[in-house]
Amino acid sequence: MSSRHKIFAGWNSLWVIRGHLSRQTYLMFALAGMLLPLGAWWGVSVSGWMDKVFMPGPVDVLARTYTWFMDDDLMSDIWISTYRVVAGFTLSAVLAIPLGLMIGTYRPVQAMLEPLTDFIRYMPAVAFIPLVMLWVGIDESSKIAIIFIGTFFQMVLMVAEDVRRVPITQIEAAQTMGANRSEIVSLVIVPSAKPALLDTLRVTMGWAWTYLVVAELVAANSGLGYSILRAQRFMQTDKIFAGIILIGLIGLAIDQLFRWLHRKNFPWMYKK
């Protein structure tokens, strides 16, 4: 086989449906996926097509991030925003997982609560801001409440769906062996649904970060979302870019942590 045919065959093998990539190849594609948009952004910024007020370059954003870190207490903004997101997300998970488990397991609970949850989840979280300010106040609990509202109802329905995907054959086998309802839930349904539940938590954590800017509309004076909104008033576009990118990087780090936990706890799902 000629070298040309070998190259074509090797390239074609990369595009097998649900095929396997070596770690080195995967990292190469991942790096390309990150660098290509960065290169396009840099190209647009230096081309002169757009004023830097509207499209600052990567170097400008990096310089603004350094100034933010040195002069404007960036680490404090990162900490308080992360705290708000994690607190709201944790509160959602603590309540949504058992409730979703009940909805996905028992039909009467599903009939009673799923339509109501479906109804509420279409209400935009931002619409609840006036009520949250009236009921909770304007301190940290209000920011956490907005993130909770934005993630809780979605998480309930996703958990319920994860539970419903547990094969009925496993439940019937446990019933045949004499397991009672609580044993079926704790020993069959929960263990079988755990991989999907961890994926659901990973996805909803991403949603929690998307509600950060909305949450920090509520009388905030710190945080990444607040800094982005404040930068808009003063046309500090480079700081807006910096804040958005920082949120993305923090979210990416948390997402990779969830992926690592998934691999660590369910290694059999990643065997070739």
Describe the 3D structure:
By secondary structure, the protein is mostly helical. The protein has a single domain (58-270), classed as MetI-like fold, CATH 1.10.3720. The protein contains 12 helices and no strands. It has helices at residues 3-13, 23-47, 58-71, 74-105, 107-121, 129-135, 140-164, 168-176, 181-210, 212-215, 224-233, 237-265. The longest helix has 32 residues, at 74-105. The mean pLDDT is 87.
What percentage of amino acids are in beta strands?
under 5%
Low-pLDDT residue intervals, each spanning 5 or more residues: none
CATH class: Mainly Alpha
Question: What's the architecture in CATH terms?
Answer: Orthogonal Bundle
Secondary structure tally: strands: 0
Helix content: over 70%
Dominant shape: flat
H/I helix tally? 12
Kindly report the average pLDDT value. 87
Rg calc: 23 Å
The main pleated sheet reads as:
none
> What is the H/E order?
HHHHHHHHHHHH
Distance between the termini: 28 Å
User: What structural class is derived from the secondary structure elements?
Assistant: mainly alpha
CATH topology: MetI-like fold
Question: How many domains, in number, for the residues?
Answer: 1
Task: Tell me the name of the CATH homologous superfamily.
Answer: MetI-like
